[in-house]
Amino acid sequence: VNLKDMVVVITGASSGIGAEAARELAGAGAKLVLTARRGDRLQALADELPVQVAILAADIADPATPERLLALAIERFGRADAVVNNAGMLAIGAIEAIDFDEMTQVIRVNYEAVVRSSYVFARAFKAQGGGAIINVSSIGAYTNGPMIGVYSGTKHAVEGFTDALRIELAGTGVKVGSIAPGSTETEMLDTIRSKFGEGAAPSTPMLGPLDVAQAIRFMLEQSDRSNIARLLIYSAHETH
Ligand SMILES: NC(=O)c1ccc[n+]([C@@H]2O[C@H](COP(=O)([O-])OP(=O)(O)OC[C@H]3O[C@@H](n4cnc5c(N)ncnc54)[C@H](OP(=O)(O)O)[C@@H]3O)[C@@H](O)[C@H]2O)c1
């Protein structure tokens, strides 16, 4: 599929993988609807891109945000063709240090918001007979480790939910898939560094956000026959 003039909604577009996906898809000629809380970052990115961009500064955990994104896409571009549910947050800590409010927020952003957004766009895409939903999960959906259980749990959940939605929508023209990146050098890793020190983040070369962005583009460019249901992308140095 040629992405030129396709209308793609990207959540978590103010930094990291989401911002790089915006650049990559803009390079392919897509029109973009970008959202995150930091509106100044979104505006700077929009100013940089050579395509039409609509931005919405909003909290993705606000239940109204997905509907607002769809409405903005329709208002500005007349339709939406794809959504990349990428916004996410990381929280880590030993059981003694768990902050329950933070954990609830991780569940709301990483899972509840992905579910809500997927359903809102799935309804619109099904009604128009086509569209694509890509949910960004993590290797945390495939490997488990201490102190990161809630984050991993949300990503396991995203994978299961996404595949169930793929099956429900098979044959409708609406494609659904997930991408699970390995460790990627973004601001998210700063959460680990600030809590546990510089040495706590992976020391081997990590993926860059561009690697993941190119994989997202590849998923969206598949022909109408093909749906990449799950894509697992590691750094070439990653061992787990
Ligand atoms: N980095 C990795 O190693 C790695 C590995 C596997 C999977 N992932 C996944 O990749 C996705 C992108 O993460 P990243 O690595 O690119 O990290 P990042 O640079 O920290 O980006 C996270 C994005 O999510 C947005 N976001 C967070 N909470 C939000 C909220 N409540 N409302 C709206 N937007 C919110 C942030 O924007 P604002 O702060 O401006 O709202 C930001 O744009 C996440 O789903 C993450 O779990 C990352």
Tell me the layout of helices and strands.
Blueprint lengths: L6 E5 L4 H12 L3 E6 L2 H10 L4 E5 L7 H13 L4 E4 L14 H29 L2 E6 L12 H21 L4 E8 L6 H9 L12 H12 L9 E4 L7
Parallel strand pairs: 1-2, 1-4, 2-3, 4-5, 5-6, 6-7
Helix pairs in contact: 1-7, 3-4, 4-5
Bound molecules: NADP nicotinamide-adenine-dinucleotide phosphate.
Q: How would you explain this protein's 3D organization?
A:
- The protein has 240 residues and is an alpha/beta fold.
- It has seven helices and seven strands.
- The protein has a seven-stranded parallel beta sheet with strand order 3-2-1-4-5-6-7, sandwiched between helices.
- Helix 1 (16-27) packs across helix 7, helix 3 runs parallel beside helix 4 and helix 4 runs parallel beside helix 5 (149-169).
- It starts with 6 loop residues before the first strand and ends in a 7-residue tail after the last strand.
- The model has no long low-confidence stretch (mean pLDDT 97).
- The structure holds NADP nicotinamide-adenine-dinucleotide phosphate.
- NADP nicotinamide-adenine-dinucleotide phosphate binds at residues 12-18, 36-38, 41, 59-61, 86-89, 109, 136, 138, 181, 183-184, 186-189, 209.
